[in-house]
Design goal:
- This protein is of the alpha/beta class.
- Helix content is 19%, strand content 31%.
- It is built from 7 helices and 27 strands.
- A 6-stranded mixed sheet has the order 15-12-16-20-19-17, sandwiched between helices.
- Helix 1 crosses helix 6.
- The radius of gyration is 31 Å and the shape is elongated.
- Bound molecules: adenosine monophosphate and magnesium ion.
- Adenosine monophosphate (AMP) binds next to loops.
Amino acid sequence: MLSVSDARERILNTIKVVDEVILPIDQVVGRVLAENVTSPTDYPTFDNSSMDGFAVRSSDIACASQTAPTILTVVSDIRAGMDPGIPLFTGQCARIMTGAPVPSGSDAVVMVEDTDFEVRIPGSPAPNVVAVFKPTKPGENVRHRADDVHVGEKVLPAGTRLRAQDVGLLAMLGRQSVPVYRRTRVAILSSGDELLSINSPLVPGKIYDANSYLLAAMLEKTGIDLVNLGIAADSEMDIRLRLDNAVKAKVDFIISSAGVSVGASDYIKAVIEERGNLDFWKVNMRPGKPLAYGKYRGIPFFGLPGNPVSAFVSFEVFVRPALEKASGQVPHLIPTQKAILAQPIESDGRETYFRAVVSEEGDHLVAHLSGHQGSGNLFSLVQANALLIVPSGVKSLPANSEVQIWPIL
Ligand code: AMP
Ligand code: MG
């Protein structure tokens, strides 16, 4: 049987990255950056004040104190957005507002609170003289050019999924547009004669199609364009028809659930083989042992197991990294943490993903199983906050063993 990591590796080796598009930066949040962005400028672009106060020469006020203030002549009034104006000479200062350029000759800003200038009414004119009560260090309350970013510095690497703060930075540096990867288009298909849409009344023998909603919701969080192929009956003709709709919709991936085992109604494999190629693997994992991966008319195809928990785990382990690679990101590694097992557990030697509730106890994490571990029991996944991974080859673990847990959101 194929190991989980080998199966993932084999899938990732077949995945190609989608094309790039150039978009204005107000359309790129959640998109993946397709180039390294370097700063076209120093930032701040000029020395400016971080306080409302007075721009001074710090050597002038070295002896200033509450009882013996230094009196300076105010020679200009610099507000944000203005030119810094005339230079300062000894004994002079300039009233200055936050974000306004510091005049030449000045090396520091005294906060208005450390002067005798009490008038804080918007629009009030600057005084002619001001008494300063405190010395400043050179550079105090000045944001220097390039304090934050240097010209030519790499600020965002290619592959970054852009967040609001990244978009803010692009604007701050004056970028109007950036190349990002096209959104991937993903089609999902449920299959099985027993499945009903949630709009229909439930009748004996039938169940509601949970996987379409489960997979669509997982995909929505990854920022793809979804094409829903609906529910295919257990018939080659219906499956083929719906997969051909995915081809017409020019999707990058097709993800189906169910119909890939060895049951009498499992037709997915046959349809894929007929019009593409199929690798059908028994992966050494639980849940999710049967995994079909291949191409349908050239489109990468995942045949996930039908049980909702198996579909969820297989998606996280195999599909998510593939989508990340296709969208230009580096596929993330499973972010595991150590926890202490609260109870003994039995496994069957396959790499097992148990559903667990993990809580902090003192300085470590403790993991309990979250309920019935059958792969159709979605409720125990809902109650879980982590998957607990037991490596292959391990058949039992006593209580208090150290285990790896994978937090799920
Ligand atoms: P199969 O792989 O087709 O044998 O399906 C395995 C199990 O998953 C069966 O109990 C199915 O009824 C169930 N199942 C398949 N598809 C879905 C779905 N979309 N929603 C909920 N359960 C499903
Ligand atoms: Mg079925």
